[in-house]
């Protein structure tokens, strides 16, 4: 789009303000404004300019080929609307009618935003563009405006990788209303102050705002956490590098050993007033790859990194200390009885969301080989569940699109690992349904899957249900069972993803 037209307004009129680009599917109308809502809530500050690109890929096209460039600047009530048609195939009369319809539609939808932004000293530059590819348009505008963020409507998910590859700013993709996947700039990375500021805003909401929590039917509301009770990994300044002296102090001079095997040593400790877990790995290619991955991961249903220390031949990884593992809960009759079907269904959704982030939403490609089972699921004090991915260092967890990992993971078939992760999710669902541990299951040499699969295939659930729960008619159990069967029957001929499995767990399919 040509922003050098004489009708165009200045985007850099403020010495301190910066630009934020919001790209929307203009054909969705009001439904596409969630991206603008999110940008204003979390990113935009006083004196900033929000450039909203409403892309209309189909308007102005008719079968007869022609090319009639059309430019029209319209100032209305302080909202600047710029309509540009690069491949127009309408007659001038038809084009004017289409312009009028879209102008009136956007005036109606965006008028409240104009007043809101004016109070906050934020400028709006609203542009509708027809005949352009949204991803190329976003990159072109980023080259001109040098924004610090580009926010994409969720319907433009297919454009995410192309845009991030070709711009130098942070990118956010709306996942659902109020929730976005964040991708840090290739230049500054997640360590820059701007990134940390936005994450801190989101952190404040993540533990207090219902918009950021998928409410479970009939589930009790949790008391909001205060900032000082946030997990360390969610606080500003974390994850960070620790010195060896700090590690020694945290672990009481390495006296607090809780586990030692051939791969690692695990210590418990205290940092400030917070309990943490410290894992010590031998410094090799696999543990270095693990550190590289977990330092980038950030999701509420993953046990996130607090910090690290790499010294000599050892790598120390610190994470928040959970209340315990799901497996330990299932092995305790009292704890398992308190884990109702509603809570188990919620855990299935939360862990599935964590896998979905790692498989489909992580900025640098798919993270696979997650070794999912109940012993690798941590339970928090607020009844949240988190996937622990630190076990996978010996199994070559991999960032799919990272060429630097090829020497470490050259023998990994990512599609095969995605299938295995989905099948593991199915076994995890069996653990929730039966209350049995996959790792400790014993039944005449049968595995948990061998025992359960005939019941699933015949849709006979009663022999599988955890007998410690008296309620046997909860429909969410059937949803989990159907998803488990789909996961376990998954092979290369099926086109299944964790997103599709989550839809079955929710009862949407």
TrEMBL record:
<keyword id="KW-0547">Nucleotide-binding</keyword>
<dbReference type="GO" id="GO:0005886">
    <property type="term" value="C:plasma membrane"/>
</dbReference>
<dbReference type="InterPro" id="IPR014729">
    <property type="entry name" value="Rossmann-like_a/b/a_fold"/>
</dbReference>
<dbReference type="InterPro" id="IPR011009">
    <property type="entry name" value="Kinase-like_dom_sf"/>
</dbReference>
<keyword id="KW-0067">ATP-binding</keyword>
<protein>
    <recommendedName>
        <fullName>Protein kinase domain-containing protein</fullName>
    </recommendedName>
</protein>
<dbReference type="GO" id="GO:0005524">
    <property type="term" value="F:ATP binding"/>
</dbReference>
């Amino acid at each position: 789009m040509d922003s050098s037209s004489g009708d165009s307004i200045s985007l850099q009129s403020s010495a301190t303000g910066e630009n934020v680009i919001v790209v929307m599917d203009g054909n969705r109308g009001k439904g596409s404004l969630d991206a603008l809502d999110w940008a204003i809530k979390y990113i935009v500050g006083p004196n900033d300019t929000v450039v909203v690109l409403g892309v209309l890929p189909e308007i102005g096209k008719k079968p007869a080929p022609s090319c009639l460039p059309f430019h029209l600047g319209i100032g209305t009530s302080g909202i600047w609307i710029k309509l540009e048609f690069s491949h127009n195939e309408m007659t001038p009369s038809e084009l004017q009618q289409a312009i009028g319809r879209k102008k009136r539609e956007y005036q109606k939808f965006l008028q409240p935003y104009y007043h809101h932004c004016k109070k906050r000293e934020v400028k709006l530059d609203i542009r509708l563009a027809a005949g352009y590819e949204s991803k190329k348009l976003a990159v072109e505008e980023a080259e001109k405006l040098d924004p610090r963020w580009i926010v994409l409507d969720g319907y433009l998910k297919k454009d995410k990788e192309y845009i991030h590859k070709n711009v130098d700013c942070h990118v956010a993709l709306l996942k659902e209303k109020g929730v976005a996947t964040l991708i840090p700039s290739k230049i500054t990375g997640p360590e820059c102050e701007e990134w940390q500021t936005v994450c801190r805003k989101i952190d404040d909401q993540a533990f207090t705002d219902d918009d950021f929590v998928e409410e479970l039917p009939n589930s009790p509301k949790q008391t909001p956490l205060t900032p000082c009770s946030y997990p360390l990994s969610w606080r500003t300044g974390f994850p960070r590098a620790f010195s060896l002296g700090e590690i020694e102090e945290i672990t009481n001079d390495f006296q607090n050993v809780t586990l030692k095997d051939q791969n690692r040593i695990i210590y418990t400790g205290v940092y400030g007033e917070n309990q943490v877990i410290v894992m010590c790995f031998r410094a090799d290619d696999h543990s270095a790859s693990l550190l590289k991955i977990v330092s980038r991961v950030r999701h509420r249903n993953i046990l996130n990194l607090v910090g690290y220390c790499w010294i000599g031949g050892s790598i120390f990884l610190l994470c928040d200390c959970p209340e315990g593992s799901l497996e330990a809960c299932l092995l305790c009759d009292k704890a398992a009885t308190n884990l109702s079907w509603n809570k188990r269904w919620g855990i299935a959704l939360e862990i599935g969301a964590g896998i979905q982030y790692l498989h489909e939403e992580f900025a640098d490609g798919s993270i696979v080989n997650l070794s999912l089972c109940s012993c690798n699921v941590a339970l928090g004090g607020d009844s949240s569940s988190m996937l622990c991915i630190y076990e996978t260092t010996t199994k070559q967890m991999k960032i799919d699109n990272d060429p630097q990992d090829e020497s470490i993971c050259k023998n990994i078939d990512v599609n095969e690992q995605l299938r295995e992760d989905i099948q593991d999710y199915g076994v995890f669902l069996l653990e929730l349904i039966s209350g049995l541990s996959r790792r400790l299951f014993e039944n005449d040499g049968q595995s948990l899957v061998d025992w359960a699969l005939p019941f699933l295939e015949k849709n006979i659930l009663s022999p599988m249900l955890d007998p410690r729960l008296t309620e046997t008619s909860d429909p969410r159990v059937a949803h989990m069972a159907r998803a488990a069967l789909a996961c376990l029957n998954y092979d290369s001929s099926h086109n299944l993803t964790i997103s599709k499995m989550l839809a079955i767990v929710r009862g949407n399919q």
